[in-house]
């Protein structure tokens, strides 16, 4: 306990971001104030969040970039491994590269990954433009790499149809990963369906089906 308290005192920015990410994920960005975040983080000075981050937008941007960096590192490794074998050679492989790093980050990184998919969904519902502007093509390079592969592999569709499918894909995957994360965070009962590897595999396969459905006549 002492070690944890010392770490928190030495790194208040990280603790504030961790607390804020959870509150934003549970309640939405507009419903959470900076003073509430400070109080939940155990800070006596309720203006401490403004001191460290200035504005809520700055705080949200830092949380977004922190998570995006870690997911992108996982995604880059995944894509590099596929490239070493001459791939990706199918839409399914590319969708795996989109879905699995985000799911595994939430599952495996207990401090920084917890709540992130739900936080990202809340943010995308409120302002997708904020995400694009914040990441600026720098912290989502792996995702953009996936989209380029998909454009190569999704033959028989017009550019407009491909772009629509990408919107559908993002909404579908984002919502399901957030739901899965929420279920797994519930410690009051078991969630065998959401814990099963088959469920994550099915998310990948059904997401790929969205992209591979035949064009509208």
Describe the 3D structure:
The protein has 217 residues and is mostly helical. It has a domain of 150 residues. 76% of the residues lie in helices and 0% in strands. The protein contains eleven helices and no strands. Helix 5 packs across helix 7, helix 5 crosses helix 8 and helix 6 runs antiparallel to helix 11. The chain is globular. The termini are far apart.
Sum up the structure in keywords:
217 residues, mainly alpha, 76% helix, 0% strand, globular, disordered N terminus
Q: In angstroms, what separates the terminal alpha carbons? A: 63 Å
Rough outline: globular
- SS class: mainly alpha
Averaging pLDDT over every residue, what do you get? 93
Report on the biggest sheet: none
Short précis:
The protein has about 220 residues and is mainly α.
What does the secondary structure layout of this molecule look like, with pairings?
Blueprint: H1 2-10, H2 12-27, H3 34-40, H4 48-53, H5 56-84, H6 91-108, H7 116-135, H8 141-153, H9 159-185, H10 192-195, H11 197-212
């Amino acid at each position: 306990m002492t070690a944890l308290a010392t770490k928190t005192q030495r790194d208040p920015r990280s603790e504030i971001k961790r607390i804020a990410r959870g509150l934003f994920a549970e309640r939405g960005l507009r419903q959470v104030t900076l003073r509430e975040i400070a109080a939940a983080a155990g800070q006596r000075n309720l203006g401490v969040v403004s001191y460290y981050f200035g504005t809520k937008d700055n705080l949200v941007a830092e949380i977004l970039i922190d998570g995006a960096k870690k997911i992108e590192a996982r995604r880059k490794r995944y894509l590099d491994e596929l490239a070493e074998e001459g791939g990706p050679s199918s839409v399914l492989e590319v969708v795996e590269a989109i879905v699995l790093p985000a799911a595994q980050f939430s599952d495996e990184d207990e401090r920084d990954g917890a709540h992130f998919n739900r936080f990202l969904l809340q943010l995308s519902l409120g302002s997708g433009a904020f995400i694009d502007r914040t990441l600026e093509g720098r912290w989502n390079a792996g995702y953009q790499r996936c989209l380029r592969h998909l454009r190569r592999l999704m033959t028989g569709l017009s550019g407009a149809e491909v772009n629509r499918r990408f919107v559908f894909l993002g909404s579908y995957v984002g919502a399901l990963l957030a739901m899965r994360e929420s279920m797994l965070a519930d410690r009051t009962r078991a969630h065998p369906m959401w814990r099963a590897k088959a469920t994550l595999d099915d998310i990948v396969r059904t997401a790929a089906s969205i992209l591979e459905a035949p064009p509208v006549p």
